Amino acid sequence: MRKLQGIAVSPGVAIGEALVMDNEGFRIPRRFVARDAVVDELERLEKAVAAAATEIAHHRETVSAELGEKYGGIFEAHLQMLQDAKLRSEVEEMIRQRHYSPEYAVSRVLRRYAQVFQRLESSYLAERASDIFDIEKRLLRHLLGRRREGIAHLTSPVLVLAHNLTPSETANLDRRFVRGFVTEVGGPGSHTAIVAEALEIPAVVGTGAFLTEVSGGELTIIDGDKGLVILQPDEETLNRYRREAEELRIQATKLEPLRELPAETRDGVRVQLLGNIEFPYEVDHCVDRGADGVGLYRTEFLYLGADSEPTEEVHLQAYTRVVQAMGDKPVVIRTFDLGADKMPNMARMEDERNPCLGLRSIRLALRNLPIFRTQLRAIMRATPLGKVRIMFPLVSTLLELRQAKMVLADVMEDLQEHNVPFDRDVPVGMMVETPAAVMMADRFVEEVDFLSLGTNDLIQYALAVDRSNKDVVNLYNPADPAVLRLIAMAIQAASRKQLPISMCGQMSGSPLYTMLLLGMGLRQLSVTPSAIPEVKSLCRSVTIPECQAVAQRVMGMEHARDVKNYLKEEVKKYVREITE
Ligand code: PEP
Ligand code: MG
User: So what's the pLDDT on residue 238?
Assistant: First the structure.
């Protein structure tokens, strides 16, 4: 048994077989071959070994000729390992006796060899492990050939263990079979983490390197609440987690009746609890949890899953699905927020040194007007179908907002000219997710119909911490007094103008902050759909004066740690246990 500590990004417990994706994206599932196919499979292995040997010999010749025998010798060593009789017979035995597929057998045997080297004291010998991984990859490349499988063709339940998953790779995980995932890198605010919540599967990111120590098929536990990953758990641990998973299921069903009840405080103040969605199907999760609407639809995922730019019709279909499912409840459609960690396959954008500070979001939209206009046309065409609102992301200057609104006005003129029906009075709002937007909030409120606090980015930009970087996770803190002051400023600017303001960053879905946010004056929270019941339950347990007292205490504190400890104690008075 081995335990790894990572960052908890999506709650719940998952227990199952590991599917290992290494840096090159190979999947090495535990597969078996039919008894009568063993001879053919051994032959396939033979061919792969021969092809790998030819390749290595070729490298040896080229490198020796160009850099000298000493360097060519590296490949000679690889060749000897590849052709080592003992190693070879172990792989063959696994295929013959256990009927493992050659891919799985190669991976099992070579990884075991590598682990022995990794454990040796001598750093020189420990480094030889990477030579073995190199041979493993080479053999797998030949064995899988064109069949090099992504994670698109799964047939049984798995827990994906990967070095990294991009938001679009995560978005494309097969929900029928992927029961959870772990990545070696990544931070708490990454969109990969956000997508895990959309998929409603437990996930842990930022564990650091461990993939070389696991083989596909190994039993694994993902504890998405504590950020723990347990490889090859012992019987006792396994039983404990099985009980915990059952308890979580029971707990979730206990909250189900809340679906029909409003998010209303004990003293009768109605709170709007809306859902954040990335994919149209999630609107069902919102309806199931009794959401008061969709407070954030991250439409950029339409681009992330596609090979080409989505057409106006593709946009319209997605919006129609969401807006109609919500009926008379509002749907805030945010225009595409691409860039930074959300890179589409279609347009190869230039590599940027600082993508979070680069051409992302509304900036990208204003530089690519045809793409922006296509989306705006589709959103406008969806307006007669329900209660649509438009929201612009990452606005940092008044000029940007005005430009975006001008493009929208232009799109409306165009639609009118062609007699396409739309609602001219569609409310237009913006995300407040840069410190600049907070500082200028008193001006912005004059030009929009609503504001929405995007704390995921606001924390990143206010504290200068990368939301996707595990190494600065201790600094990425919603409870930081600097962040809280920014939030308070934005709320004040909106309330002076009596303008609706909500919060749609991850912070709003954490019950730890519910009392604080209500006490600070927020009455609209847009959260991951799965978080609605817990947040609603808390809203229904407290009064606004109680929340205001909490907010007042917190705003006088100097350290994020004190804020968190205090909030934990306060919230515990109302609910038994909370997920942060
Ligand atoms: C945010 O930044 O808080 C937000 C809601 O937007 P995203 O997470 O998509 O950047
Ligand atoms: Mg954002």
Answer: 96
Ligand nearest to the CA of 506: 1
Q: Is the pLDDT of residue 22 over 80?
A: no
Helix (H) or strand (E) holding 229: strand 228-231
CATH number, span 35-147: 1.10.274.10
Given a cut of 60, whether residue 41 has pLDDT beyond it is yes
pLDDT at 165 over 90: no
Sheet of 13-21, strands arranged across: 2-5, 228-231, 219-223, 13-21, 158-162, 178-183, 203-205, 7-10
Which tokens sit at 221? 């536990």
Looking from the CA of residue 454, the nearest atom of ligand 1 is: 3
Note if 315 is an active site residue.
no
Q: Taking the domains of the chain in order of start, what are their residue ranges?
A: 2-18+154-250, 35-147, 261-571
Nearest CA to ligand 1 atom 8: 456
Quick check: CB of 536 below 6 Å from ligand 1?
A: no
Region 90-109 average pLDDT: 92
User: How many A from CA of 551 to the centre of ligand 1?
Assistant: 23
Ligand 1 atom with the smallest distance to the CA of 505 is: 3
What are the tens digits of pLDDT across the range 366-403?
Answer: 999 999 999 999 999 999 999 999 999 999 999 999 99
Q: Note the pTM of the prediction, 2 decimals.
A: 0.82
The CA distance from 98 to 92, in Å, is 10
Query: Is the CB of 454 inside a 6 Å radius of any atom of ligand 1?
Result: yes
> What spacing in Å lies between the alpha carbon of 383 and ligand 2's midpoint?
24
Catalytic residue among 142, 285, 315, 504: 504
- Give the Å distance between the CA of 525 and the centre of ligand 1: 13
Q: Are strands 2-5 and 228-231 parallel, antiparallel or unpaired?
A: antiparallel
Tell me, using a 6 A CB cutoff, whether residue 433 lines ligand 1: yes
Contact 525, 517 (CB under 8 A): yes
Closest C-alpha residue for ligand 1 atom 1: 454
Domain 261-571 part of CATH 1.10.10.60: no
Q: Do 160 and 186 form a contact (C-beta atoms < 8 A)?
A: no
Closest CA to 447 of 410, 405, 391, 412: 405
Known active-site residue 504: yes
Q: Determine the atom of ligand 1 nearest the C-alpha atom of 460.
A: 2
pLDDT of residue 558: 98
Beta strand extents in 283-386 (DSSP E only): 294-298, 330-334
Read off the DSSP letter of residue 440: T
Helix axes 511-520, 544-555, angle to 10 degrees: 90
221-255 per-position pLDDT tens digit: 999 999 999 999 999 999 999 999 999 889 888 88
Of the pLDDT bands very low, low, confident and very high (cuts 50, 70, 90), residue 144 is: confident
Q: CA 109 to CA 113: how far, in whole Å?
A: 6
**Could you tell me which CATH number the domain at 2-18+154-250 has?**
3.50.30.10
- What pLDDT does residue 146 have? 52
What tokens appear for 532 in the block?
């609605």
152-191 burial code (b ≥16 CB/10 A, e <16): eebeeebbbbbbbbbbbbbbbbeeebbbbbbbbbbbbbbb
